[in-house]
Specification:
heterodimer; A: alpha+beta; Phosphorylase Kinase, domain 1; seven-stranded antiparallel sheet; B: Rna Polymerase Sigma Factor, Chain: A; Arc Repressor Mutant, subunit A; binds zinc ion
Chain lengths: 238, 200
């Protein structure tokens, strides 16, 4: 090994990817050559700076909690983890969707959400917010977010899995002062444009669709538009 | 009941093996997506897939590398499913001439590069095309071997070596430019008494 050839091996040397013989040859050269030692030292200081700086990024605590909870629920689940994860949606939502697909000839998101709203009897979990949450945690194949927090007037009372436009969805069922309304949440299509809530009426129901690039929801109820608009979170009101 | 029990102990074993790598998996997800919310989703999906496939994990092999492989496959498939354009900016190889040197720089240049801040290092890594930043972060930040990186990325080991070489070099060039810019900016700003310059 000599000064001329050493630069070719610096990366391999520091990555620990050289055969023992080559590694030893370089170490022997470094013992007696200060300029090559300097080359190695500069490079290794750069690697150290990179590693130390960027290793400081750690996972959010909430993510750790969510994953641990999902692993725990999967351990207790009567489904195998594989089933709960991969086939769960096909088993649970597939049948429901097949029925819906037959009813609706040309389904838009609102039409589908209204159809889900009408199918109260298909609700898979009836319970309060935390019961609904632990049911969905292991079954929902995407990172849903409970769309509305409980208030004095509004209460989450149930949920089920569904499919909107071929994508997994969760239908949340709410009680609003004795009136039922539902929120169907799904991943937005690729051409989704965030903006103020889209509000309208169809088949005797009022709906509002709103969301960002990550999650979109369609709120459906039989109340007047003005009342439904009040439920839409402030960020999505005009 | 026996089945229930074994499933339970399976998930306990999975937690012991896989959860300690959560920070690394999250960092890798951020490296791939550049987006906290997408990274969250990707990490959750990775862990659920890993749990479902835990039987196929061979004890004694690198669990972190195994999780990285699942994550990268999931990410690549998601991008394909969404039919978004996969940006694989392959840079012309031109090996030979480039391999004549290591990726190291001259003395004064190195001084500028080594003065980089944490944020500048992060920006430099983020600026690399995806396959290059994947290779660099797996090697330089997470400490995987060339063979492990090749497995994660499903590429030959030679491709890993050239991506590492070029990725590191591009990062340094980026840092050199940033450092020179902020040095000259620092000088100008110090003339008007500002303290925002990173002193030159
Ligand atoms: Zn020498």
């Amino acid at each position: 090994m000599d000064c001329e050839h050493l630069p070719k091996y610096v990366d391999f040397f520091l990555d620990g990817e050289l055969a023992d013989v080559e590694h030893a040859a370089i170490e022997a050269h470094l013992q007696q050559c200060e300029s090559c030692r300097e080359v190695i030292s500069r490079e290794s200081r750069f690697r150290a700076a990179l590693r130390q700086s960027l290793r400081t990024v750690v996972a959010p605590g909430s993510l750790r909690d969510q994953i641990e909870a999902k692993i725990d629920s999967a351990g207790k689940s009567r489904y195998l983890p594989t089933l709960a994860y991969a086939a769960g949606i096909a088993l649970i939502a597939g049948l429901g969707y097949a029925v819906v697909a037959n009813i609706i000839a040309n389904p838009g998101f609102e039409e589908q959400a209204i159809a889900f709203h009408q199918q109260n009897e298909k609700t898979e979990i009836v319970g309060n917010r935390s019961e609904v949450d632990s049911f969905l945690k292991i079954r929902a194949p995407f990172s849903y977010q409970v769309p509305l927090e409980d208030t004095g007037d509004i209460k989450l009372v149930g949920a089920r899995l569904a499919t909107v436009g071929g994508n997994p969805a969760v239908v949340f069922l709410y009680d609003g002062g004795g009136r039922r309304f539902s929120v169907t949440q799904y991943k937005p299509p690729s051409d989704w444009q965030p903006g103020p809530a889209r509000i309208g009426r169809q088949e005797g129901y009022t709906y509002a669709t709103y969301g960002d690039g990550a999650l979109v929801q369609t709120l459906v109820g039989d109340m007047p538009e003005a009342e439904l608009t009040k439920i839409v979170p402030a960020a999505w009101q005009k | 009941m026996a089945i229930w029990k074994s499933r339970k102990s399976n998930s306990e074993r999975f937690k012991r093996e896989a959860l300690p790598h959560l920070d690394a998996v999250y960092r890798f997800a951020l490296t791939m997506t550049h987006d906290g919310a997408l990274a969250d989703d990707l990490v959750q999906e990775t862990y659920m897939k890993a749990l479902a496939a835990f039987d196929s994990f061979q004890e004694g092999t690198n669990c972190k590398a195994w999780l990285f492989r699942i994550l990268r496959n999931t990410f690549v498939n998601q991008v394909r499913d969404r039919r978004k354009e996969v940006v694989v900016e392959e840079i012309p190889e031109g090996l030979g001439a480039l391999w004549a040197d290591s990726s190291s720089f001259s003395d004064p240049e190195s001084a500028v590069i080594l003065a980089s801040t944490r944020q500048q290092l992060q920006n430099a890594l983020n600026a690399l095309p995806i396959d290059f930043r994947t290779a660099v972060s797996l090697s330089d930040i997470e400490g995987l071997t060339y063979q492990e990186i090749a497995d994660v990325m499903a590429t030959p080991i030679g491709t890993v070596m050239s991506r590492l070489y070029r990725g590191r070099r591009m990062m340094k060039e980026y840092l050199l430019r940033q450092g020179q810019q902020s040095n000259s900016q620092g000088k100008v700003l110090s003339l008007v008494g500002s303290k925002t310059g990173r002193g030159g």
